[in-house]
Amino acid sequence: MRMNFSMKRKYSLSFLVIAIILALSVTGCYINNQIGKLNSGDERKKEYAKLSYYSPGKDEFVSPKEIVSFPEKTTGGNPGFGRFFKKSPNAPKFELPKQVLTKKDFPEVPSAYAAYWLGHSTAIIELDGYRILIDPIFENAGPLPIIARRMSPSPLRREELPDIDIVIITHDHYDHLEAETIKFLADKNIQFIAPLAVGARLKSWGVPQNKVTELGWHQSVTHGPIQITACPTVHYSGRSYNDKNKTLWASYVIKGEKKNLYWSGDTGYDDHFKEIGRKYGPFDLAFMEIDAWNNGWPNTHLFPEQAIKATQEIGAKLLFPIHYSTFDLALHPWDESINMVADLASQNNIEIVTPIMGEKVIPGITPTTKWWIAR
Predict the structure, then answer these.
(1) Which of 42, 62, 98, 234 has the fewest Cβ atoms nearer than 10 Å?
(2) Would you kindly state where each structural domain of the chain is located, as residue ranges?
């Protein structure tokens, strides 16, 4: 018996509905996995209630300075979330220079002091024979591959990472914590260091409990001769609509036998820089974020002049700019921040370290150039 037109249409619609439901289910599972798990609210309250930077009533961590936003003051275009699905109009018009890396490009034994910037806030630091990987991001900056895509590919694939001793996470935003990379590293002989409550995310992606160390502000952990201390920043955390500030965020002091380094993480400007300088400075080198500022969110990230001021206040000899040229997070041209910081550093007699992505440098010794200026 032949199927009439209405029956065919009915079956076609049924298959379409089933296909849509399956696609949504798969997408939902994928996103849920990208978010990662959290400890329960009761666990958080019990463990963190006595901390001055945790609010048991709200069940959330608290920034040293309240994060504010002024949508009416936002500059640079439409700040709507839909922009993260499109190619950025602020992306470079030429392929950014980079040193493509493989495992073979790294020494078998890490050197006493060197750094490789891999774009945005991802870097490898070699210190006293140990290799530290910070905020490893190799793909996009969202819960789906089509969201917040890179403006320039990473110079290193995660599969080509050399042996890593320590992974440091500053906070759980997607442009700093990548689920697939954590899964890839989970079974390796690595110590993971993260702010309070971020450990649950790592463990949900396969990192064993005994490999995770969570730090509150001004808490330290040692690994061989290296001491790593978490410090405050003015920021926030979260990976979904309902988990804002359920995990902590941090900057880090990385102190070796001869070198004292500072990693800013994401932060707005405040007095915490002076405090860090007094307690832990001076520093041989400051990895300082310089991008993602906007008048619409004036204290979420550092403006260029604030990055210079912060470098001075912590007592750093060298400034290594990070958090730029990879994602369009703040609606301004990709090279605006680095141009401004380079000019301001020169005016303030601050030496900056600006390698191309993937380039190995010994800060203060290896000469670097203004590579962002098209030749």
Answers:
(1) 42
(2) 103-361
Count CB atoms within 10 A of the CB of residue 244: 14
Give the pair of three-digit tokens for residue 241.
């609509």
Q: At what angle are helices 304-314 and 336-347 packed, to 10 degrees?
A: 50
What 8-state DSSP symbol labels residue 224? T
Interhelix angle for 272-280 vs 304-314, to 10°?
30
The whole-angstrom separation of Cα 224 and Cα 355 is: 28
* Rounded average pLDDT over 140-158: 94
Q: How far apart are CA 28 and CA 242, in angstroms?
A: 15
- Pairing of β 220-223 and β 226-231: antiparallel
Widest distance between CA atoms in the chain? 87
Quick one: pLDDT at residue 34? 95
Strands lying side by side in the sheet with 166-168: 212-215, 191-195, 166-168, 130-134, 123-127, 113-117, 360-361
Count the alpha carbons within 13 Å of 346 in the hemisphere toward its beta carbon: 7
Fold category of 103-361 in CATH: Metallo-beta-lactamase; Chain A (3.60.15)
Burial 316-325 (b: 16+ CB within 10 A, else e): bebbbbbbbb
d(CA 178, CA 199): 13
pLDDT tens figures, 303-318: 999 999 999 999 999 9
Which of 118, 98, 209, 120 has its CA nearest to residue 161?
Answer: 118
CB 111 within 8 A of CB 349: no
Which tokens hold the place of 32? Answer: 């849920």
CA dihedral 20, 22, 25, 26 (to 10 degrees): -110
Q: Are 133 and 168 in contact (CB under 8 A)?
A: yes
In a 10 Å sphere around its CB, with 0-12 CB exposed, 13-18 middle and 19+ buried, how is residue 195 labelled? buried
Does the pLDDT of residue 2 top 60, yes or no?
Answer: no
